[in-house]
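Memo to structure team: turn this sequence into C-alpha cells by end of day. - J.P.
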Amino acid sequence: ADGLGHTDYKTLSQQIPVEGGWKISGGLGLAFGVLQDASYNYSTLNGNIVSEENDQFIPMITSFAHIYQQSSRSIKIGGSFGVGFPISGGSGLSSASFFLGPTVVLGNSQKFLLTTGIMGSKVNRLGGGLNVGDPIESIASEIPINSNYELGYFIGISYDLIK
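Reply from structure team:
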C-alpha cells in the first residue's frame, strides 16, 4: 500500500503460443534440379551440326515463399513456390528456374524447410527444323536456337528467414 489505501499490483506477463492459421514466410537455400529431357550445346564440325550433352544435375541458389499451418509441432507440412539461379553456367534473368512443390517444415523457432516438386527451367533446342547431323553452311554462332521453358524435378533445403 502507498499510505493512501491503494494497493500495488504486480504485473504478470506470459507468452501464449498461438496455433492454427496459415503462415507465409520467406527462405533462402540450395536446390538441386534435373531436367526431364537432356539439354545440349550445339556447334558445327566439318559443316554439320553436332551436340554436346550438358550436365543434367543443376545446383542452384534459391529463394522460396513458404506457406504452412502454424502449430506447436516440430514437423509441419506446407507448400512452396520459389525461384533459383544456377551456381555456374548461367547468367542473367534468362537462367532463372522456377519451383513449386510440397514442403516439410522442421523445427519451431529455427526452421529448416525441405521442398521437392516440379521445376521449370529454360533449355536451348535446335530451331528452324534442323536436327543434329544436318549439314549447315553457317558458323556455329548462327545456328538457329529456340530457348523454351521445360519441366524437371528438384529437391531443396532452405532456412526460414521470417520468425
